[in-house]
Every structure is written in structure tokens, then in C-alpha cells.
Write a structure and sequence with these properties.
This protein is mainly alpha-helical. It is built from seven helices and no strands.
């Protein structure tokens, strides 16, 4: 984009405009070699268009953006729900009222579920903190939903630990 007076000057009076009519010999054609004065202007970029319109430049998401953390939290939450028996263990203690002991296998299930749930909450909370006005709404909604369900699963894990009794030491 050139801002020199030669490029932007227009004839100030009608007489000046009629003095230099363009004839086929003097008008620039596409067959003539391009010089700096007649070269084609480059296409403006979205950032320059936004600048000219007085808007902030378009935001490009980074690798560690809010969307990445939001999806990572969802994957950890799905892992917790699909691969552990947290809900089953909690249901046997509350709905059926079964008495159980906290064996090594059950303790491993509950520990894994609690850690993955806590990591899902942490990742989604980071996504919410990193989100801004340019962040897509689905990212914020996914992160908020993951935080809520993740906190629920952390509470289920803690309640399952409390409801299960530790095995009695062998005498």
C-alpha cells in the first residue's frame, strides 16, 4: 500500500483532468513490464484489515490454549467414567447398604478414579482461566461442565473411601 502524493493525487480542476487524457499509447497495459509504480498491490492480510477497521487482530489459538485444556479435561473425565468402577462401588455402599472392606483392588480403583477426576477438574479450571473474550463459547461450556461433573466424581471417591472400612489387621 503506497501513500505517496503521486498515487493519491487527483486532478483538482476539470481542466487538469482534460489536459492529460489517457490514450492507448500512454495508458498502462498488462503487457508492459511491471515497475514499482505500476506493480500490483499485495492482498491485504486479515490482521491489516482488522487494524484499518479499528478492531483487534484475529486471535490464533495456541497449542496450550483453553480449547486444549478443555478437551484434555473431557478425555480424563471420560476415562474416569468408562474405565473405573467408582459409580458401582458407591452404589453398593449407598443403595444396597452392603458392608465392605477397603481391599487393595478397591483402593486402587478409587485412587485411580479420584486422581483422574481431580486432573480433569484441574485441566478444565485452567481452560476457564485461560479463556477470554475471543475464546469459542463451546470451550467455556465444555470446561464448566467438566469441572462440575469432575467435582461430583471427586466427592463420590471421597465418600466411597469413608463408607468402606479398612480391613482389620490380622492378629
Amino acid at each position: 500500500m503506497s501513500t505517496s502524493s503521486e498515487d493519491t493525487a487527483s486532478p483538482s480542476t476539470p481542466d487538469e483532468a482534460s489536459e492529460s487524457p489517457e490514450t492507448p499509447e500512454t495508458s498502462p497495459t498488462s503487457e508492459s513490464p511491471e515497475t514499482p509504480e505500476t506493480s500490483a498491490t499485495p492482498e491485504p492480510s486479515p490482521a491489516s484489515e482488522a487494524f484499518l477497521q479499528g478492531q483487534p487482530a484475529p486471535h490464533r489459538d495456541s497449542l496450550f490454549g483453553a480449547g486444549t485444556f478443555s478437551v484434555a479435561g473431557l478425555i480424563m473425565l471420560a476415562t474416569t467414567l468408562l474405565s473405573t468402577q467408582l459409580v458401582g462401588i458407591f452404589n453398593t455402599q449407598t443403595l444396597i447398604g452392603a458392608e465392605g472392606t477397603l481391599g487393595a483392588a478397591v483402593q486402587g480403583e478409587l485412587t485411580g478414579a479420584g486422581l483422574f477426576s481431580a486432573l480433569a477438574v484441574l485441566c478444565s479450571a485452567v481452560a476457564l482461566f485461560r479463556s477470554g473474550s475471543e475464546t469459542h463459547p463451546w470451550v467455556r461450556h465444555l470446561a464448566a461442565g467438566t469441572v462440575l461433573v469432575g467435582i461430583l466424581l471427586v466427592v463420590l471417591t471421597v465418600l466411597s473411601y469413608v463408607l468402606l472400612t479398612a480391613p482389620a489387621p490380622a492378629a
